[in-house]
Each structure stands twice: as C-alpha cells, then as structure tokens.
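P.,

For your records, the input lines for the assembly:
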Amino acid sequence: MKYSLYPGCSMEGTAVPYLKSIEVVAEALGMHLEEIPDWNCCGATIASGVVGDFTQQVVAARNLALAEPKGYDVLVGCSSCYFSLALTNRRFQTDDHFRQMANEALAAGGLRYNGTLRVRQILEVMINDIGLDKIAARVKRPLTGLKVAGYVGCQTVRAVPWEFDDPEDPVFMDKLIEALGATPVKFPMKAKCCGSSQALTATDIVLAAGNDILQCALDNGAQMLVTPCPMCQLNLDAYQGMVNQQFGKNFNLPVLFFTQLMAIAFDLPPAAWALKNMIVSPYEALAPFGINR
Amino acid sequence: MADNNVSSAPIKYDHNFAQEFFSTENGRLAQKCMQCGMCAVSCATKDLMDHSPRRLFNLVRAGKKDEVLGSNTMWMCTSCCTCKVRCPRGIPLVDVMHDLKNMAIAQNYVSYPQAAFYQAFWQEVLNRGRAFEGGVMARYYLKRGWGEIKKAFEMKDLGMSMLKHGRLPMVPPRKIKGLKELQQIIEKAQALQRKEAK
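Structure tokens returned:
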C-alpha cells in the first residue's frame, strides 16, 4: 500500500515525535510512504483569515498538484492540515467554477490539479486500510492494563463531518487503543476543543480547556492520553505545568501521539517511540511494561 | 457585552455593510441564518466573545459595521467546528469567521493579538513556503511590542522545557525550492479573488 505523505510544518518542529513514530509504524505495517516533494504549508485555519479562503485553498492545492502524478492517497497526520487539504480537495471535486479558477492560479506556478486524489487522515487509514485485526496481530508488547484516554480533539473528526467517524462521539481512537491491548477509558471530553493556536494569543483559553480535559481524563482513571493532533498534544503536554500553576492542580499525565503508543506496542526500536521528546514524562505509566528511562 | 438598552432614537441601518459581508465567499451562506442559537450554545469560547455568532449575524443585518468588525468574536473562534457540524442550516460558521477576520484585517481592525498572530503566520508562509514556529513567534512578538514580550518572558520555563525536549528548533528549515512559483500562484489567486468579489 502506497501513500503520499504530507507531514506539515509542525512535524518539522513541535510535533517531531509524531513524524518519527509515523514513519516507523507505517513501515512495520507494510505501508510505503513517499513524502510529497517540496511540499508547502497548507495555510492551516489561519491563512484564510488574512488572504481569504480561495487563496488559502489554492496554496493548499499546490501540494495536491505535486502529489497527483503519483496517484497515491495523500496521508495527513496533523488535524489542521487535514482540515485544509481535505476541504480543498472536496472543492476541487465538487465545484467546477472553483476548480477552473484555482487552476488558473496554479498555472501561474506551472501547476495543475485535476482532483483525482483522496486525502486521508492517518487514524482513519489505520482502521480502514490496515484494519484492527492486522494491528492487533502486529502487537508484540501488549499494553494490558494500561488505561488510556483517547483524545481525538476537534478538527480531526469535524473538518469533514461524517467522513469517517462520529464528529461528536468518535470511536476510532478507542478501538485502536483496544487493539494495542490497552484499555480505553470512558472519556466524555474526547472531542472537546483544546484552544488550539490561542495558546500564544489568549493563553487562558488553553489553560482552562487543558484543566477540564486533563481533569476529565484523570477522573475516569486514565494514566495517559493519546491524540492524533499536534496542536492538542502540544497544548496538553507543554502547558500542563502552567495548568497546574494556574489551577493549583497536580496533573502528571503524559500525552502521546497515538502512533508512539503503536510503536511501543509493536516493540519497534526505542528511537521511534520518541519518548525523550515528551515534556510530561511517560516513564512512570510505562514502567510496568519494562520501559525505563 | 452587547448593549441591550432600548432607545427611542430612530435606528439607522447601513445596508451597504450587509451587502459587503454577504458578497464574501462564505459570508453569503450566513444569509441562511435563522437565529436559532445552536452555534452559541455549542461554542467552545462563547463566554469570552463580545457577541455570539448568532448575535453577530444579526448585527450584520442591522448594519452595525463597527460593532461587527471591531468585535472579538471571530478572533476568539478556535476553528473547532462544533457549530459547523451542528448548524441546522448547514452554515460553515468556521469559514464565515475566516471571512470576517479577513475583512477586519483588510479594513484595519487589527487591535486583537490574534490579528497580529494571523499576520505573523501568513508572513512566514509567504516568505518561506512553510510556517517555522520560531519564526511565527518572533514575528508575533515584534508586532505586539514590549507588553507581549514581557509576557513571553513569564513563559520562559515552558520555552526552556520545550527546548530541552527537542520540541523547539531554533534554526528554521530551508525555504521551499518552489518559493518563487508559490508566490506567483498566491499573487494570481489574490487577483482572481478580488475580481470574483466584484
């Protein structure tokens, strides 16, 4: 199975552990990933606020145009990149006027996109292309007894509502946690917003959301959270100390990308676990499985 | 908060603003709003907004340009899409908020920190082809000035722990190879967009 990988800007910076684990986990599952050559920023949900949706979607479409000759499905990890690329792709496929106009703009850079690709979220690909049975069969270090809160966040399941999972009560992440031998805890805040990029501009939003989400995970007995979203991961992991300060809490909940948990359960080389990149230490939660610093 | 006082003075509506807003890419879809308030009860940040999205759309119809473009509503939106999923009229509120942000920036309503952040992010994309997080932050703090820089120092522990864990590269990645072509594409897209809006 071949895919064109769109890493996105965060995987070059704050979400480095996501990329490290995706590459190795994909290989272990027989997926062949080819990074889109010379990809550019998708604009996220930010660029359209400055230059308008049309321009932002044309910027995103440059990546699809670069990937189209291969014909592989485009694999996206970041929820904001998924939002941007999947919606752009849908517009190319359903709106003739938009496609013509967008191609007129792309032509200024010598490119064209015909709308023949599929844009896929990596969590959805794990379930629908690989399958839970195959994932479970690949597990060499069953995470039996580990209680995990599957934190899906907002855009992954709501960017394109009902594309693959319930936008309000998603279940894919829980199923995957189960396939790794761990126990998904009940987690009503699994799709609550973390505050996203307000971390920099209105930090209190992110701290309040983080407090609610972490408390909910803790109340339901979780030992860690896993997520498919770089923004959620960053806000809950890096800002956890500030949440503790602001609300007088004592949270010590590691927040991993779900692909890191897969790399651990598959017993892939520890470099792919990328645990050194985690700000809240996951070693206490993982000690029962023979994983130490 | 919104002014709920009733005055006996005649209300002056400015329909030009409603027309201007309804001619934007997604703003036109907000014409379908039936004021049910589902967006308001679903919103993750409604408590911090000057007006809920529902009320904002009503203010558009009433022609309250300054109140709409000067409000913090669209800037508080985190693009979590809950309202978009739930809107019974299928209005993509997230995208409508993008149009409002775009209008606000274009008409110089830029006092909110988010406006500076959005512009910093876009400058990074335009100049590098990718958004280097360190670059976005630097541009943002420079735009916002000393007050914000002081706040950044208060958060230095967080920055240090990110550095320590290899989560905050200080050296930007190389610019994309096709940067010139990307800029040409953007220029053309902007021209087409302006033409379409007329």
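Two observations worth noting. Chain A is about 45% helix and 10% strand. The CA atoms of residues 237 and 278 of chain A lie 7 Å apart.

Regards
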